[in-house]
Specification:
The structure is a single chain. This protein is of the alpha/beta class and 485 residues long. It has a domain of 237 residues: ATPase, nucleotide binding domain (Nucleotidyltransferase, domain 5), CATH 3.30.420.40. 38% of the residues lie in helices and 20% in strands. It contains 18 helices and 24 strands. The protein is globular and about 65 Å long. The N and C termini lie far apart (54 Å).
Length: 485
Amino acid sequence: MFIGIDLGTSAIKSILLGEDGRLIATASEPLQVSRPAPGFSEQDPESWWHATIAGLDSLAKQAPREMAAVRGIGLSGQMHGATLIDKAGAILRPCILWNDVRSAEECGELEQRQPDLGRITGNPAMPGFTAPKLMWVKKHEPDIFKRVAKVLLPKAYLRYRLSGAFFEDMSDAAGTLWLDVGKRAWSDAVLAVTDLSRDQMPALVEGNAPAGTLNTDLAKRWGMTKAPVIAGGAGDNAAGAVALGAIHPGDAFVSLGTSGVLWATTAGFAPNPKAAVHAFCHCVPNTWHQMGVILSAASCLSWLSGVVGAAEPELLKELGDTLHKPSPVLFLPYLSGERTPHNDADIRGAFAGLAHDTSRATLTQSVMEGVAFAMRDCLEALRAAGTNLKSIDAIGGGARSRLWLTIIANVLDLPVNRLADSEVSGAMGAALLGRMAATGEAPATVCKPPHRIETLEPRQALRDAYADSFARYRKLYPAIKEATR
C-alpha cells in the first residue's frame, strides 16, 4: 500500500493506493490563502501540517487494514513557495506563495547580478520563483533573513514535519532559480548573488528515490506495522505527469488547476527563457520538461462565481453541453499577472466587448475561452522553443468540464483526452513515486498512461472561428498594458 499527499493551494489531497494501483481511499482538507497587500499571496505552513494530519487520520479511519500495510509515501506540492525556518525548525514568517508578485523589482536585480541566469537555470527571473522572494525578504525583512537556517519549498516542509529530514527533489528545486537544471545540482553562483549557501538548501534527490522515513510516533498513530519510506516526490505538475505516464519525450498534458500549465516532456534540457517558457527537471532521472504557465486558470471561474453570486456548477449548467460559436466577449485572465509568454507581474485582467445584452452565460463562456486563449499563447511559446505537440491529456479541477475541454481542443487545434480520476492526479503521481522509492521499480514499469474516457477532436468550423477570436485576443495585451501603466 502507498500514500500520496498533494499539497495544493486550495486543499491538501491525500490518497491510499493499493499494490494493484486501485484507489482505496481519498481525503481532502481545505486551505486558505492570505492576501495582506496587493500582489501578496501567503499561507501559514502550520495550516498545511494540520490539514495533512487530518487527511491521513481520515485515510486510516476509512481503511485501517490497508493503512497498516503502507510501505511508501510520496509528496507532491505547489511549487516556488518560500518557507523559511530557523535553526530550531521554527517557522519565521508565512510562506510566500507561487502566485505572489511582490518581488518583481528583485527579478531585475537578480538578472543584473547574474547575467548567466537563463543559461544556468533555464528560466527568466519571475516573481513567482523562490530566489527573488528571498531577495525581497533580505531587503524588507532583514532581521528574518539573518535567521534563515533553511529555505524549504512547501512539500519539503511537510517532509521535515513527517520525518525530520531535509530533502528536495529535482523537479521542485528547478522552480527556485537556484538549480543548475542541466547538471541537476544547486548552483553556487546563483546562490551567492542572493546571499545564500548550499547549507541553507535541502539535499537533492530524484523524485523516485528514498528521502526520509516516517516518524515512528506518526506511524503508530496511523496503525502502520512499519514506518514507511518517503520518496523524493515532485512538484505538482511533475507529479501529474507521473500519474499520466508522461515520462517520455513528446508526452504532453494541460492542467486546469488554480493556475494553468501546458506541459511537454523533453529528452534533454531545452531552455527558452526569452519566451517565458519554463525548462525544468522532471522528477524521474535523466528527464526534463518544458512548461508554459498561466497564473490564473480554474481560479478565473471561481472568481466569476464569487462576483456574480452563483456556484460554478450553476454557471456551467447555463451553458449546456453543446458549443456553437465563440463568445462575442473577450476575457484576459490576468487576475494575478502573467507568466508565459509575457512575464508581467503588473498586468491585470479585463473584459472586452460588453454590451447591454451580455448575459451571465456569455461572461462564463468568455472566461473559459480566455483561459484557453492563454493556453494557446503557451502552445505558441513551446513551438517557438522547438516543441510540437500532437495531442494532450487534461487534468485538474477544470478538466471536469467537458465543455471547457472542447473549447481548449478547438482553440489549440489539438485532440484533448478526458481522463478518469483526473482531479487527484497530483496525489496519484506522488503515491506512485512512493511506490518506486519503496520497491525500487523503474519509472517505465510504474508510470503507465491512465484510462482515457474519450478524445475531444477539434471541429474545423469552430477551430477557424476561434482562430479569428484568438487573433483579436492577442491584440488586447499590449493595449491593456499601455492603458493601465
